[in-house]
UniProtKB/TrEMBL annotation:
<dbReference type="InterPro" id="IPR009100">
    <property type="entry name" value="AcylCoA_DH/oxidase_NM_dom_sf"/>
</dbReference>
<dbReference type="Pfam" id="PF02770">
    <property type="entry name" value="Acyl-CoA_dh_M"/>
</dbReference>
<dbReference type="InterPro" id="IPR023922">
    <property type="entry name" value="S04_starv_induced_SfnB"/>
</dbReference>
<comment type="similarity">
    <text>Belongs to the HpaH/HsaA monooxygenase family.</text>
</comment>
<dbReference type="Pfam" id="PF02771">
    <property type="entry name" value="Acyl-CoA_dh_N"/>
</dbReference>
<feature type="domain" description="Acyl-CoA oxidase/dehydrogenase middle">
    <location>
        <begin position="128"/>
        <end position="220"/>
    </location>
</feature>
<feature type="domain" description="Acyl-CoA dehydrogenase/oxidase N-terminal">
    <location>
        <begin position="20"/>
        <end position="119"/>
    </location>
</feature>
<dbReference type="InterPro" id="IPR050741">
    <property type="entry name" value="Acyl-CoA_dehydrogenase"/>
</dbReference>
<dbReference type="InterPro" id="IPR036250">
    <property type="entry name" value="AcylCo_DH-like_C"/>
</dbReference>
<dbReference type="InterPro" id="IPR006091">
    <property type="entry name" value="Acyl-CoA_Oxase/DH_mid-dom"/>
</dbReference>
<dbReference type="InterPro" id="IPR013786">
    <property type="entry name" value="AcylCoA_DH/ox_N"/>
</dbReference>
<dbReference type="Pfam" id="PF08028">
    <property type="entry name" value="Acyl-CoA_dh_2"/>
</dbReference>
<feature type="domain" description="Acyl-CoA dehydrogenase C-terminal">
    <location>
        <begin position="246"/>
        <end position="378"/>
    </location>
</feature>
<dbReference type="InterPro" id="IPR046373">
    <property type="entry name" value="Acyl-CoA_Oxase/DH_mid-dom_sf"/>
</dbReference>
<keyword id="KW-0560">Oxidoreductase</keyword>
<dbReference type="InterPro" id="IPR037069">
    <property type="entry name" value="AcylCoA_DH/ox_N_sf"/>
</dbReference>
<protein>
    <submittedName>
        <fullName>SfnB family sulfur acquisition oxidoreductase</fullName>
        <ecNumber>1.-.-.-</ecNumber>
    </submittedName>
</protein>
Length: 403
């Protein structure tokens, strides 16, 4: 897939939300079939690029609208409600635009923002297998004259097959941070680079069409102008991690909303249980209770999603250790609430729909499969720990990309 030329220029946040709602309606129509057949959404991702929705965080001075996190989050929620796989694909695009905003030089920002405004899409090459923990990168960047050479293998590279640029996080060989840890950087590698290969070997039970496959880099040469420092992002207060997390929460909240809506439709089609003594299943008091509990979970997740996004916007306007900490905690809370809501709503769906809802042809399992797969991205149990420490003792959460 190559960059879309002359992508639509969105002029304000209201237009962004209208475009997102329109695209979401289009994407939702064939989402069940794409999931069932594992059909990759090439046409849909191209439509997303043409729409201008990949440009929302580009600063005004570079031709964008510098949309608030609250608006960007709602765009992701709408897309997640329609098709969580498609919503997942631009997540890393926005995450690595944030790397450029925080650490890119003026020249780098100007170059890549122009690419994005023309319709170019970023994808990630971050996660690895075989390292002791996920924050270790065996992939390396070695300086060689005016270039760098990248070697390594990355997994779970969501959207790489659709992207124009692959953002590769790697260890800078021979360089350490002030704390003595290996320094990291991000190399923005064109999809067509010699030595770069992408294999669609993602076989997850959910998020089936994200193309989260394997990226291999065999002595790939990258000009120094396409390498951006990564480690320094966390030397000072930042909203890098909280923005990444709030967008994940938006996808989960979208799944929760879609599952609840499907549960309601299923309840209206199902037969009442004979002991309820009612003519319609929706009048069964026990199903009413289940629906009410699921609705509360979805409403709470939606409210916390908006609160977290607003906290991030506040922190970006006035960035201090305190405002960044509040943004991280609020985003973590939204992530926990949205994960719980997506799993609850996608399970209650079968209670309300009855046996027929388990039909393979109906493919209603996709809601739970997507929720269960996406909520494994990073553990909510650790977010609860940070929330608890903040609540009891005001302990500032650590700075990293998952908080």
């Amino acid at each position: 897939m190559t960059a879309v030329q002359n992508a639509h220029r969105i002029t304000d946040e209201a237009e962004a939300l209208a475009v997102a709602a329109d695209l979401a309606a289009q994407f939702a129509a064939d989402a069940p079939a794409r999931d069932a057949d594992r059909t990759l959404p090439y046409d849909e991702v191209r439509a997303l690029a043409r729409s201008g929705l990949l440009t929302l965080s580009v600063p005004r001075e570079h031709g964008g609208i510098d949309a608030r996190t609250e608006t960007l989050t709602e765009v992701f929620r709408l897309l997640g409600e329609a098709d969580p796989s498609i919503a997942q694909i631009p997540h890393s695009h926005y995450t690595f635009l944030e790397v450029l905003r925080l650490q890119g030089t003026a020249e780098q920002r100007e170059f890549f923002y122009k690419e994005v405004l023309a319709g170019a899409q970023f994808a990630n090459a971050q996660s690895e297998r075989g390292t002791k923990t996920i924050d270790v990168d065996a992939t390396t960047l070695l300086e060689d004259g005016t270039d760098f050479v990248v070697d390594g293998k990355k997994f779970y590279c969501t959207g790489a097959l659709f992207a124009d640029w692959i953002a590769v996080r790697a260890t800078l060989r021979g360089t350490t941070t002030a704390t003595g840890k290996p320094a990291k950087a991000v190399a923005y590698v064109p999809r067509s680079a010699s030595g770069l290969s992408i294999v669609d070997d993602w076989d997850g039970m959910g998020q089936r069409t994200t193309a989260s496959g394997t990226v291999t880099l065999d002595s790939v040469r990258v000009p120094a102008s396409h390498v951006v420092p990564f480690s320094p992002i966390f030397d000072a207060p930042t909203t890098y991690g909280s923005q990444a997390q709030i967008l994940h929460a938006a996808i989960d909240t979208g799944i929760a909303s879609a599952a609840l809506n499907e549960a309601v439709r299923s309840a209206h089609r199902s037969r009442p249980y004979f002991e309820a003594g009612v003519a319609d299943a929706v009048d069964d008091p026990l199903l009413i209770q289940l629906a009410g509990e699921a609705s509360l979970a979805v409403r709470a997740a939606t409210a916390m999603l908006r609160e977290g996004a607003r906290s991030i916007d506040t922190a970006r306007t006035s960035l201090t250790e305190s405002t960044a900490a509040v943004a991280s905690i609020d985003a973590a809370a939204a992530k926990v609430a949205s994960a719980r809501a997506s799993l609850e709503a996608s399970s209650v769906l079968f209670e309300l729909g009855g046996t027929r809802s388990a039909s393979e042809s109906a493919n209603l399992s996709r809601y739970w499969r997507d929720a269960r797969t996406h909520t494994l991205h990073d553990p909510t149990r650790w977010k609860i720990q940070h929330i608890g420490r903040w609540t009891l003792s005001g302990t500032v959460p650590p700075r990293h990309g998952l908080l």
